[in-house]
Description:
globular, seven-stranded mixed beta sheet, single chain, 7 strands, alpha/beta
Amino acid sequence: MKYLRLIFVAIIFLISVTTLILGGLYFYRNKEKKTLASADRKQVAGSFIKLSAGVTHYQLSAADTGQVVVLLNSFTTPYYVWDSTYNYLVKHGCRVLRYDPYGCGYSDRPDSIYNNTLYYNQLSQLIKALNLPTPVSLVGLAFGGTIATGFTVKYPNLINKVILINPNYENVKPDKPEFVARYYETIHPNERAESQLNNFKHPENYRRDWLSKYRVQMKYKGFINALVSTMYNYNYDGRTSNKLLHATHKPVLLIWGRDDERVSFSFTDSIRNLL
Length: 275
């Protein structure tokens, strides 16, 4: 009996120590120290609008001329990813909208499930609130391509043309419980930021500036929740979605880099067979 009691005490001690270590590591590594507020937004360019799930950070070119083009970001990357594209399209007569999806950049991080409905509602409400003439053209990059595809299927009357730039095709769900993924993301913030460089063929040309800009959004509470919740709750099947997109009879332009290592170029065959 005495030995059993000693073993029990030892187990409790080990559990307590482990909990303290894991908890300490969590709070030490956690970069989300601030709550995104209006004071933070006053320091950045762009505009802000209150939608049903929260404030959205966006930029809409002033000239009310030409076809409206909406740029949809890649996963977790704010709308600065479109800087050169935005300026080019505006210069060539388009009216262009770009925005930060919920949980990203300077948009709110609502405490909710990040699924298809949340992202579709944000875009549809933004189009309506800004009184954009429809139909608009959608340009989706990577994860933005999945939003563009699904949104067009749900709201075909709002869309004129679709441009997909290395759109996600496979929807591989994480192989660990959600709470484990949240913990891992929290204690490995540099890994998430550094992985951004995998998107570039020549990351050495972007390393310093790109990482510093990306890390800004990581200090605001709710970024990891949005990231992990999207990973587990955004449902997408490339084959089904592209078949449904084909049924809308919308013109689709597919752009892909042959050396893309993030979303394999091999998926182009699958998509072209469906469209």
